[in-house]
Amino acid sequence: MIRAQHDWVATTLTAPEAGTVLGVNGQVGDGVVAGSTGPLVPGAGNVGSAGGGFIVIGSGSSFVLWAPFSQTDDVHLLLGQTGTVTVDALPGLSFPSKVTLIETSATQVNGVPEYYAESTLTTTDLRLRNGQTATVNVVVQSVSNVLCVPTQALFTNAGGALQVDVWYQDAPVATTVTTGLSGSTLTQITSGLQAGQQVMLSPVGQALPSSPAPSPT
Predict the structure, then answer these.
(1) How many CB atoms lie within 10 A of CB 116?
(2) Looking at the structure, do residues 129 and 151 belong to the same domain, yes or no?
(3) I want to staple 76 with a disulfide (CB 3.0 to 4.6 A). Which of 122, 140, 180, 185 is the partner?
(4) pTM here?
């Protein structure tokens, strides 16, 4: 009886920290190597993976998101950059995050190199679960109190100059501008425009609206 109790104690597994069991990869008779720890990383990155451990444990109170970035976006990532995470299962909510790890080796996805980066959520929610799908937006540069126009208003003329159509005396006038930071929706204007001017939003080559009063930006 004493021997059985001793053997039972010897085979009890104790987790190094509180968490949720994400997977049990071992079977009876398998050998187990101690010290197999590390972040659970998708793909074949160089930061190590605990996905093949005997038991994989994840935190139930703090969460990280691994997301792939293209090689052109990855070069703009830096540790500590802030962003927001939106979870598909929680529409309308966003969680602040911070970049805490960036892979230096690419993972090939359908022949295209992508680089995974870890974003740690800096707040939590009782409805968050391990394995949920999400999207992260990382702020790589920012400016404040500057003049900007919708990115769709910009076009390049035949001479290669970057321009916008400014509404002046009931007609659009192509105006050359210089730009600063550019995003998917807004682009900073450093010269060529003044606050209060109206610009046309019609893409170049399309008919201009007949209304003499386009929407101001």
Answers:
(1) 21
(2) no
(3) 140
(4) 0.60
